[in-house]
Task: structure prediction
Amino acid sequence: MEEIMVIGIAGGTGSGKTTITRRLVQRFGGDVTVIYHDNYYKAHDDLTYEQRTKLNYDCPDAFDTDLLVADLLTLRRGEPVRCPIYDYTAHNRAKETQTICPTPVIIIEGILVLHSRQLRELMDIKLFVDTDADVRILRRIVRDVHDRGRSLESVVDQYLETVKPMHEMYVEPSKRYADIIIPEGGHNMVAMDMLIERINAHCALGGKKDG
Result:
């Protein structure tokens, strides 16, 4: 199994992480696999739906990061993993899992992927997407209402109660661990070109097509 490049993409909610990820997937196709930290939210089958809606999903303890680290190590050994799937409408981990196979490039995306030292140590490139807070909250409202079946009131309440304070406590400080800070995410074409060239070089060394 050839060497796998691991890229961590962090940043606040609605910062543009997924835009970068999608553009890299479009460019490199099957040479890139994406693992979302959100899929590693802890399961809470013991709680009711109402209780689950009140949990803090923006702190490090909300995630089973140890499982993500273990899965990433397995992938780097050239073996597939069964990745959990998170159901945003149920506020809980789904019963189904997704098989993920090793590829030349693995992207780990999530608000807190740079917070964990164990996770950072497995990354070859650490990115932080830096976008103004007002832009991020507007994007989150649109996403959660349209794509995740949330009410406007619940999105605003969650933002004020946990998202904003947890961003200031955990997400923003993790920026200091980034190799590259990217303003405006996937719309920053200079940063995108740099990323693409770096991945091109890695895939070429591994004897892979560059997309």
About this structure: The first strand starts at residue 5 and ends at 11.
